[in-house]
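Collaboration report, partner site 2.

Our partner group contributed sequences for two proteins of shared interest, and the home lab folded both. The records are reproduced in the order in which they were received, starting with the first partner submission.
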Amino acid sequence: MAQALQIKEKENKGLKRSFEVVVPASEIEKEVVRQLQQVSRNVKIPGFRPGKVPEKVLRQRYGQSVMGDVINAAVNKATTDVLDKQKLVPALQPDVKITKFEEGSDLSFDIELEVMPESPTLDLAKISIEKPVAEIEEAKIHEALERIARSNRSLQDKADGEKAQKGDVVRIDFKGFLGDEAFEGGEGRNFNLELGSGQFIPGFEDQLIGAKAGDEVTVNVTFPKDYHAANLKGQKTRFDVKIHAVQAPVIPTMDDAFAQGLGMESLEKLKDAVRDQIQRDYDSVARNRMKKHLFDALDSACSFAVPEGMFKLEFDAIWRQVEEAKEQGDPAVKGKTDAALKKEYEAIADRRVRLGIFLSQTAGRNNLQVDRADLSRAVMEQARMYPGQESKIIEFYQKHPEQLAEMRGPILEEKAVDFLLTQVTLTEKKMTLEQLMEEQESESFTQTPADHAGDSDDQDGKPKKAAAKKTASKKKSD
């Protein structure tokens, strides 16, 4: 009869557990003998027939490597057995340390772990969340159609001698100078610039209004004080500009023929498609607002201790972003001490882990599952983000199933959010898309410095203005 595993609890405090485990020497020896017999059937040793190699010879040649495999397997199996017997769900991989082992003796090791806390069951009906609603106005559809028409414009050369106006496109050569010296990156040829687009730094485009094809214009501008290139910050510069052509935009007529050119049956069908897209945009922003307010409510209602290991992993990931942001001079961290930043981001890390656990356990309690169709939709959404490369994105996930598996967590989390939004009390509130977007920009969303990453000028030295701030992507529990 196999000797029983010996388990002694050393610590049971909060979420921390510690055990001393002893695997009997007889069990270790039994497994060593079994594996040596397996080796004997597969190895060829001169002077011995396969399967007839004496155990002593096998131990001399393979004993050390077999013993290592047996110890690793014994520790893994015993650890699993302990967790099963104690009915423990570890928050992270348990820390295992062998404390004693000599050949022929018992194997002793310690297991240290933190268990996953049990999040509270809430009376969700007591949580009240506003649900933004709106009717899509015809004026908004008309504005969207005008934008589509403008984006499908053509350009027509203006008559000789006709002056450039705001909205026209000029094809230019330009060269920038600091004093009498040309500066690196300040030159371009046959560049198409729409006047009034704000593509170049303030003042540049305005000085080309009124120019004609064939003109040579001197443009004097001062670079912004926050320009990314140190040698150009706040500097007065001169650009010599040659106008090759002036073209006026020709906006297509909004009719059935135009709609058919876009692949729609008629103008009415195009309007329907635009209305549906506006509604989807609205619903997306509205859901983000509800999700934010839901998380705020859950943050107050779900108060429980989180595993230190999970908290540390989350905080360390955030702090790496903070360090990068400090190096880049990000305004989100500028002027703050490390102590103040750590206090701020420790609270964020705790919130993320706590709400992550709650969402995961909500999904489990309500049997929410991620199926193949969910994963397929997620892959298609990823593919649509890379126009022209959709097939490559799909092929990537087909060849890397481990990357596909990583999508399960975020998908399950969103399913949990959708479920919770069906359980809380929703109160409708009329809001326009503009109001939603304005609130999103002005409200104090919790962000990591990484949310500000990517703000830079388009190309070094060229008279481009700083890129507009990106709408910060909200993390799962921000």
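Second partner submission, folded after the first:
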Amino acid sequence: MKRFLAIVLLFVVMFSFRLVNTNCQAFAVSENNFYTVYSDKTKSKILFTKGDEVNEGDKYLSHENDLYEIESVDDKSKTAIAKFIKKETLPKVNVKKKSADGEVNASAASKKKVGIYHTHNDESYYTPDGVDSVYGKGGIHDVGAALSKNFNKLGVETVYREDLHLPHNSGAYTRSQVTAAAILNEGVDAIFDIHRDSTSRKYYLTKVDGKEMTAVRMVIGAASKNYEENKNFAYTIKAYADEVYPGLIKDVYIGKGNYNQQLSTRAMLFEMGCENIEKDYAKRSTEYLAKTLDVVLYGTEGASNKSLADVEVNGNEAGLVSNKNAAGSNNTLWIVLGVLGGVALILTVVLLASKKARYAVGRFFSEMFAGIFGKRKAR
């Protein structure tokens, strides 16, 4: 009996050790399971890190507004080399950070509405979730809820959808496109897909107004038909935040995908920290992100007093992003006119080229209009 108990105890100890070791390994892998991008071939300087894969041709806007392009990727070592392209000039925003004794004279506009959803619902934070992902609603939903709450405090209505798009694979964006389209049908002014990155904590830890929180990365899809509009949207967000809340916006990554941004000219993907940063830090960042987006979307005439409490306006209006409908510009009319013009051109060429064709076309229209207006009387 003693021998049996000793064997059982040995198995328990071995299993416990294996379980602890497995958990430690999972955390260690997560700490290193990301791509490291260097700014030169000597790999002397890390430009940035990223949890998802990087591809040749992807672009990256640094915190200092230096634009780079990925020129080579080693998937085995998860490293890449980026080349410097140019120093980008961000849109001019007519605001500056307000001094402590500044006054606020603006009032919030009515009927402000934005949409929030999650393509990758499983994403979580080790602190306090204990894991980096779950099969269901992960900790990222708490961050989305915090962003929605902070928008509401500013008089911005939110359409917050927590639909699941599991599993976390290449088909997730196809599934979440249905959710994004449904949100846009509710007449929102902009739509935001809330994610978290996967990298070391140190790359996202920041301070804004003396408070520790997570920095935010924006991701743009270069394949989207709305790429230029969404890039301008991202650049304007960064320009405003750099002036009013320096440290909030980490950088901008421009990937090869769509990220559902083909649906709207004001769609953005936000990476709210990484799994190794505290979830409360990500939730804290949403207050400043909501204020930034309130002013960027609605200007100084429409933003909440709470958003403008930190802003001194240079001129009458911050005048930030285009006032287009969030669902994108409607090109249907131009397409129809283009088709009609093409048909007219072809008919003209045919009629000029052939007497027989002129007769056939004339008879066709004669019969068609006779059918509409009634047959002509026989003479």
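Feedback sent to the partner group on the second submission included the following. The radius of gyration is 28 Å. The first helix runs from residue 2 to 32.
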